[in-house]
Specification:
The complex is a heterotrimer of chains A (about 600), B (about 280) and C (about 550).
Chain A lengths: L11 H10 L10 E3 L2 H4 L5 H12 L4 H11 L3 H8 L13 E6 L2 H5 L2 H8 L7 E6 L11 E5 L5 E5 L4 H9 L12 E3 L15 H6 L4 H21 L11 H9 L6 E7 L8 H8 L1 H15 L1 E8 L4 H16 L15 E6 L9 H8 L23 E5 H11 L6 E8 L5 E6 L5 H7 L5 E6 L5 E3 L10 H6 L8 E6 L4 H15 L5 H18 L7 H18 L3 H5 L2 H5 L1 H5 L14
Helix pairs in contact in A: 1-3, 3-4, 10-11, 10-13, 10-16, 12-13, 12-14, 13-14, 13-16, 19-20, 20-21
Chain B lengths: L3 E6 L2 E6 L4 H7 L23 E4 L6 E2 L10 E3 L3 H17 L8 H7 L25 E3 L9 H6 L10 E3 L6 E3 L26 E3 H8 L9 E6 L8 E7 L2 E6 L13 H5 L15
Parallel strand pairs in B: 1-5
Antiparallel strand pairs in B: 1-2, 3-4, 3-5, 6-9, 7-8, 10-11, 11-12
Chain C lengths: L1 H7 L8 H4 L4 E5 L3 H4 L1 H12 L3 E5 L12 E3 L6 H14 L5 H7 E2 L1 H8 L4 H8 L3 H13 L3 E5 L1 H4 L4 H15 L8 E4 L6 H6 L6 E2 L3 E2 L3 H11 L11 H9 L5 E5 L3 H4 L3 H9 L3 E6 L4 H4 L3 E4 L3 H4 L2 E4 L4 E5 L12 H11 L9 H11 L8 H7 L2 E2 L22 H4 L3 E2 L18 E6 L24 E3 L1 H7 L6 E5 L4 E8 L7 E5 L28 E7 L10
Parallel strand pairs in C: 1-2, 1-5, 2-3, 4-15, 5-6, 9-10, 10-11, 16-20, 17-19
Antiparallel strand pairs in C: 7-8, 12-13, 13-14, 16-21, 17-20, 18-19, 18-21
The chains are: A alpha/beta (about 600), B alpha+beta (about 280), C alpha/beta (about 550).
Chain lengths: ~600, ~280, ~550
């Protein structure tokens, strides 16, 4: 490509970072040069290259970007457009030390605003504080993510933040990699090893029964695995609840090759942290599960797309992958099966929308994390245009349990908020009601529970008897989604929370389609008007306006973000508009 | 006939060639659906969602401009849901973007009973001053609906120059060069192929921008004449837009085999010499 | 055109633009299409998006070369060694299309013998291109189902232009990459109607329809139509005209829409000769440097927008040109001026419309016969040959070569063994650097037309040189340098660019008022085609005394 690269020069540190991450540019002497297809195929190194710059010097500078563009043959406008898409990449010079303080739902009700107010204006010169959307540490709210760029970057997630801890972080205290406190409150086969074995030890994993499922899968062969899965009735656990066996079979049967496997570990739904717990606490189970999926569906390469706010999970997964390779459980001949499979971790850079499966593909490929239109569906054309299996972390973990002989009868719930025992609960599904979970978790009198995260809805006490299955929750006008149970006490300000949810979606909208890009903006404006007591033409008119926004977003958005962005707000619109009749659930049933 | 697919649109059976879209089928059935982000020389970006229709079996509405028609489909274009979405899309866009130069928009707003004022006087917009950083063309992003056509034409689908891309995210997303540098610092080669596909007048040749600013742009008095470029041997058709015996704009027919609507800087802007030394307006 | 006409009997690109998109391999040889033929390059981009591999052969790593799967940076004027080495590699790799060679060509064995000495190593030594790159090109071209070989002035602006072209045609003959859909030979014409001008017979040995002037059977219909004998002696092309001026055999000249006082190689000589004519008439839009030398200037309308007519592009497509403006002041269309002059010479012509003139041409030119204005307008242009009203135009030429019936195949296409003949302006200690010239995207030829375009890309003329040469010569970016050849000298700011290797420098000819580049170039011309060796001048570069400038510090 005939690139126009400009004059900015990369520093030695930036060049060194890129040497490690992407290597040199393609062959070019003064007599011959290689380009064309070879150049274009380097686009998928862009995300890693941007990370290398960000982690090394704390921002993406013009010189760094130019150097990266030259090495990868990527036009600067494209690379800039990609970098500017992600929250964790800075495009203006800033201190190498950054503290991202979560001001999202669980942390918000735990006092995050006060913490932020206290330090506002008192930041030291070498550190900056930023508000962040949900960091996935809801069980230890309030939480923060500390990132310090440099030759050996520091990235640590800190839970249970208080004023003095925050002050310490600003003063340069480097927290050690945070070992979360008691996080598993209720165990089942998926959480059996979390907090019990050493997550970095393959030997302990195997002693606890690990890699038996893979052995069984190899014995059964792909069709046997598919039959077993189908028999279990396992459905996706990321929110869409698609039958797992059917998805795997669809890819397995695709004549076009190669096939690809992607594990969606982007987990950014406010209130969700189960995938983090699995990746940190039982990383080998994720690797093993992916290996099973790969052998069944004919994939030779897999990607774990992990959100950038999970540094500990990244280390644990990287370690598990390396150990598995050493032990011949990944590589050219997996566990003696004669089949090849290997894995890599791709780190997201701060974009909730990258939890959408087709957005993951674009992100891995080096583009903005914008969802694609479906059809075509990933099973036909996904990552790099190839047939692709995309599964949530928990789905893979559950599939492994099925192959281990366990069935698919449990679900992971992320319980947090106004209760005594926040954490991950593995509960029977079906067979568990919301009320039971709230009681187990030590909840007192509650105003509402947000089920399904920001993309879900608020349920009131009269709906707490609902059984926690996808269908039952839908029948009361809610959505089980990824399994978020976020409890709000009688003193919590639902209006404030609704506004936070509206701002969340406005911030996270990728911007492609009109209903979501403009609709999420209009939703924020509407709620701000209500909060200021200045409704446009009266409350009834605002309710009608919100109904219209919710409908067009649900009907005509490209992806699930837009489709869900007004649902939670709709379910508390009565509180926001002071209407007498409450609307239980509130999500429109479209069919 | 394996080359055709047959489907029902608004209760009427239509047959279209294999590979046609639902929009093609809807038009064949006489349904006049609006489009904004769909360009006739580009693959659809599906961004505006104004062309949505109801498709049996689909939980959500479907963008007709990109969905391939398949035999047996049952499509309804005029349902309450479909019309509602189109109205809202028009309202959301018209409330945030200056649409005064989008052909046919007034009729569509009227057709759907759209009320862009309903979001109030403080509704956020993409208003911004026009960017005049070179003498050839102007970027007027107050009129940009983020349809992605300019990015696609400059980049992957035609020109391969990639001088502009979408930067930022959500409502703050904007079409931009790297670091928002001015066009002369960017990769832009002034081919104007972005202007050729912009549906809202956000990209406009400098001469047109000047004339409009002086209330002197009179399309009703302009002739359009097809001729061939005087420069290289490729032989591109140039449509010369002439007002008062002066070339005020150059385009190329989108359906012409040689150019498909694309030109280079010489064809697009290299006509000024024709006015030098004449009583016609001097360039610049 | 001479090369193609010699081999195939017709002087036009053999494939249509759209066929490029189907090719598996596209070779751009001596072409910077990205900048000189941008909309043709869109076709190449589509091919690339469809999975084609692109090879670019050019001494400079141009914008075009930046797109290549492999760029071959050969020394200026070593195209024949490279082509011959590719040919030899095709032979040795068993990639010859035996059946096509046997049935549709002649002279194969002689060609094989002629390319045998050009081993990959010898080619590397002479061209500078690594052997593996040469082999890669050969194998890709030989293996492809469909391949396009495109060239332009990098091949033809040499003293052995025709041989250069023949060496490329040989490769297409050897692999059967001509005469069928998707495979072909595409010379990209530099100017908008070079093809048309030649097709109309504005060449010293052709009549309209590119017909052979020396053949009495061809002349006969013209004599009937024009009512007078037509001399069958071949005239002079432009270079021969200047030689004739030198010897006093040509004393008057009528120049239409050409600016030889700026565009001729060894332009100092050209200006002397033009100034020495008894009578010079120039017909043009502007008072060019040539017009300033004229005794009579005839102000012409801009043919492409102030008059009607047709032009022909590089895919043999004849298209309508239409008046969109009225000619300003007293300017007149070329057609009107010529008719008036003819009548003052007693010709008694009627002032015909453009369409009437075209119908006259069609009556005498078989390849244009079916191209009435009505048909041209309805179809948006038609490719030749178009011999009748009803026949559909042909996308590619020379399909006859693939016919099963030998009678249909007609004359076999001959291989031509050609040998290396280095550029005439040799390098030596006094003139050690190779200057090559070319175009930029936003300017055109001698700048008469593009001078009025205020392009943000324009930096004025600069001598482009590589970093290594700059270091050795003590030149910094922006310094003014003096460039001297055996014929003249110019002063120009230097610019250091990454795409140039040691020993190679580059200038355009777009700003003769600023940098009179053709004072340097050599008028070493291929007698068969009349093109001068603009691509290869020997120069010396010295820092100009007291002329530090630019962004140096």
């Amino acid at each position: 490509m005939d690139l126009h690269l400009g004059d900015a020069v990369a520093s030695a540190a930036e060049r060194a970072a890129l040497d490690d991450a992407v290597g040199p540019a393609l062959l070019a002497t003064d007599r011959t040069a290689v380009g064309g297809r070879a150049a274009r195929s380097r686009r998928s190194l862009l995300l890693g290259g941007l990370w290398a710059l960000q982690r090394r010097v704390g921002w993406i500078s013009p010189g760094g970007l130019r150097e990266l563009c030259e090495r990868l043959s990527v036009p600067p406008a494209e690379a800039y457009g990609v970098a500017s898409f992600y929250d964790l990449f800075a495009l203006e010079a800033r201190p190498a030390g950054v503290v991202h303080v979560c001001d999202d739902l669980a942390c918000r009700r735990a006092g995050a605003e006060d913490l932020l107010t206290a330090v506002s204006g008192h930041e030291p010169a070498d550190r900056s504080v930023h508000r962040a959307p949900c960091l996935g540490r809801c069980e230890a709210a309030p939480a923060a993510l500390v990132i310090h760029a440099g030759e050996r970057p520091v990235e640590v997630s800190v839970g249970g933040l208080d004023a003095s801890a925050l002050a310490g972080l600003l003063a340069g205290v480097v927290p050690s990699p945070d070992e979360p406190g008691p996080v598993v409150r209720s165990r089942g086969p998926m959480l059996a090893r979390v907090g019990v074995i050493d997550p970095t030890s393959l030997a302990e994993y195997r002693a606890a029964g690990g890699y038996e499922a893979l052995r069984r899968a190899i014995e059964l062969g792909p069709q046997g695995v598919l039959d077993t899965l189908a028999g279990s009735g396992l459905a996706g656990r990321g929110g869409a609840a698609f039958p797992t066996a059917r998805k795997w079979a669809a890819v397995a049967g695709q004549p076009a090759t190669p096939h690809h496997l992607v594990c969606n570990a982007d987990e950014s739904e406010p209130g969700t942290f189960k995938d983090r717990v699995l990746c940190e606490g039982d990383p080998f189970s994720v690797v093993e599960a992916m290996t099973i999926a790969a052998l069944t569906t004919g994939c030779e390469h897999g990607w774990i797309y992990l959100r950038g706010e999970y540094p500990l999970a990244r280390n644990r997964l990287a370690g598990a992958i390396e150990a598995a390779r050493q032990a011949g459980l990944l590589g050219d001949d997996v566990a003696g099966s004669g089949r090849r499979f290997d894995l890599e971790v791709v780190v997201g850079a701060g974009a909730y929308i990258c939890g959408e499966e087709t957005a993951i593909f674009n992100s891995i490929e080096g583009y903005r994390g914008e969802p694609r239109n479906k059809p075509p569906f990933p099973v036909e054309s996904g990552l790099f245009g190839c047939p692709t299996v995309v599964n949530n972390v928990e789905t893979l973990a559950a599939a492994r349990v099925v192959l281990d002989g366990g069935g698919a009868a449990t679900k992971l719930l992320c319980v947090s908020g106004a209760l005594e025992r926040p954490g991950v609960y593995e509960v029977p599904m079906p067979g568990t009601t919301l009320a039971q979970v709230l009681e187990q978790a030590g909840a007192g009198p509650l105003q509402a529970v947000l089920v399904g995260g920001a993309a879900g809805t608020f349920l009131r006490p009269d709906a707490f008897g609902v059984e926690l299955t996808v269908d039952a929750v839908r029948r009361v006008g809610g959505t089980l989604g990824s399994g978020v149970v976020l409890a709000f006490g009688v003193d919590d300000d639902l209006g404030d929370l609704a506004r936070r949810i509206a701002r969340f979606f406005r911030h996270e909208s990728c911007g492609q389609c009109v209903p979501c890009r403009v609709g999420t903006q209009r939703q924020v404006e509407l709620l701000d008007r209500l909060a200021a007591g200045r409704p446009l033409g009266g409350v009834a008119q605002e309710r009608a306006l919100h109904r219209d926004l919710a409908q067009v977003m649900a009907d005509a958005s490209i992806c699930g973000l837009g489709q869900a962005a007004a649902a939670a707000v709709a379910s508390v619109l009565d509180e926001l508009t002071g209407a007498g009749e409450r609307n239980p659930g509130g999500r429109r049933d479209l069919r | 006939m394996s080359d055709e697919v047959t489907l029902a649109v608004d209760g009427v059976e239509v047959a279209v060639p294999a590979g046609a879209t639902l929009l093609d089928a809807c038009r064949a059935a006489g349904a006049d659906l609006p489009t904004l982000c769909r360009g006739d020389t580009l693959t659809p970006a599906n961004a505006c969602r104004v062309c949505v229709v109801e498709l049996d079996g689909s939980r959500v509405l479907v963008p007709s401009c990109s969905r391939p028609a398949a035999s047996g489909m049952v499509v309804r274009t005029g349902t309450e849901r479909a019309r509602h979405s189109r109205r809202l899309v028009l309202e959301l866009l018209a409330s945030s973007v200056e649409l005064d130069r989008t052909p046919g928009i007034e009729d569509r707003l009227a057709e759907y009973g759209a009320d862009p004022q309903r979001f109030g006087p403080d509704a956020a917009t993409v208003a911004a001053a026009p960017i005049v950083d070179n003498e050839l063309y102007v970027r007027d992003y107050a009129r940009c609906i983020l349809c992605y056509q300019c990015v696609d034409a400059c980049g992957e689908q035609w020109q391969g120059t990639f001088a502009i891309a979408v930067a930022g995210r959500g409502f703050d997303a904007r079409i931009s060069t790297e670091w928002s540098v001015e066009l002369p610092e960017s990769a832009c080669v002034y081919c104007g192929n972005c202007i050729a596909v912009c549906p809202t007048g956000a990209l406009v040749p400098h001469r047109e921008f000047e004339l409009r600013a002086g209330a002197a742009w009179r399309p009703e008095d302009q002739t359009q004449t097809d001729t061939v470029c005087p420069y290289c041997g490729v032989g591109c058709t140039l449509t010369l837009h002439v007002q008062d015996d002066e070339i005020v704009k150059v385009t190329s027919p989108h359906d012409h085999d040689v150019t498909r609507g694309n030109l280079c800087v010489k064809g697009r802007f290299g006509w000024q010499y024709v006015h030098v030394g004449t009583t016609r307006r001097a360039p610049g | 055109m001479v090369g193609l006409a010699t081999v195939f009997g017709a002087g036009g690109g053999t494939s249509s633009y759209r066929e490029v998109e189907e090719a598996e391999v596209v070779v751009l040889w001596g072409s910077n299409a990205r900048e000189a033929h941008p909309i043709f390059f869109h076709r190449v981009l589509q091919a690339v998006r469809n999975g084609a591999r692109l090879f670019v052969v050019d001494p400079r790593r141009t914008a075009t070369a930046a797109w290549a799967d492999r760029w071959l940076g050969l020394d200026v004027g070593t195209d024949i060694p490279l082509a011959n080495a590719v040919g030899r590699e095709l032979v040795h790799a068993g990639l010859i299309h035996e059946q096509f060679v046997a049935s549709a060509t002649t002279g194969f064995e002689a060609w094989v013998e002629s390319v045998e000495p050009w081993t990959l190593d010898r080619a590397e030594a002479v061209t500078g291109v690594p052997a593996d790159a040469i082999a890669e090109l050969a194998h890709a071209y030989g293996r492809a189902q469909r391949a396009q070989l495109c060239w332009t002035l990098g091949i033809t602006e040499h003293h052995n232009a025709v041989d250069n072209v023949l060496s490329l045609i040989n490769l297409a003959l050897a692999t059967g990459h001509v005469g069928r859909l998707g495979s072909g030979l595409s010379p990209l014409r530099g100017q908008n109607n070079v093809q048309g001008g030649g097709d109309m017979g504005a060449i010293p040995n052709r009549l309209p329809g590119f017909q052979d002037l020396t053949d009495p059977a061809v002349r006969a219909p013209f004599e009937v139509a024009w009512g007078r004998p037509v001399r069958g002696t071949v005239g002079r092309h432009l270079t021969a005209m200047f030689d004739a001026m030198e010897h006093g055999a040509l004393r008057a000249l009528y120049v239409m829409g050409e600016n030889p006082a700026d565009s001729e190689a060894d332009v100092g000589r050209a200006r002397r000769l033009l100034a020495g004519l008894d009578h010079l008439v120039v017909q043009d839009l502007f008072l060019t440097r040539t017009a300033e030398l004229a005794d009579v200037v005839l102000p012409a309308a801009a043919a492409w927008c102030e008059d009607d007519g047709t032009v022909t592009n590089s895919e043999r497509r004849v298209q309508r040109v239409r008046a969109a403006l009225s000619p300003p002041g007293d300017t007149k269309p070329d057609r009107w001026i010529l008719t008036e002059i003819a009548n003052r010479l007693g010709a008694g012509w009627v002032h015909g419309t453009a369409e009437q003139v075209w119908d006259d041409v069609r009556a005498l030119s078989p390849m244009h016969r079916g191209m009435s204005y009505a048909r041209l307008e309805a179809a948006g242009g038609l490719q030749w040959p178009c011999p009748s009203d009803t026949e559909e135009p042909v996308s590619f030429l020379h399909g006859r070569l693939w016919a099963a019936d030998p009678a249909e195949r007609g004359h076999p296409a001959p291989f031509h063994a050609v040998d290396h003949d280095p550029p005439v302006d040799g390098l030596d200690a006094e003139f050690p650097l190779r200057l090559t010239t070319g175009r930029r995207l936003d300017s055109y030829n001698t700048g008469v037309q593009t001078g009025a375009l205020s392009s943000p890309l324009r930096r004025g003329e600069e001598l482009e040189m590589g970093a290594a040469d700059a270091r050795v010569l003590g030149v910094r970016d922006g310094d003014e340098v003096v460039v001297t050849s055996r014929r003249g000298s110019v002063t120009v700011p230097a610019r250091i660019v990454p795409g140039l290797r040691p020993g190679l420098v580059f200038l355009t000819f777009h700003f003769p008022d600023q940098v009179d580049v053709n004072l340097l170039t050599i008028d070493a011309t291929d007698p068969r085609s009349g093109t001068a060796e603009f691509k290869a001048t020997a120069v010396r570069v010295d820092v100009s005394a007291g002329a530090r400038g630019g962004a140096a510090d």
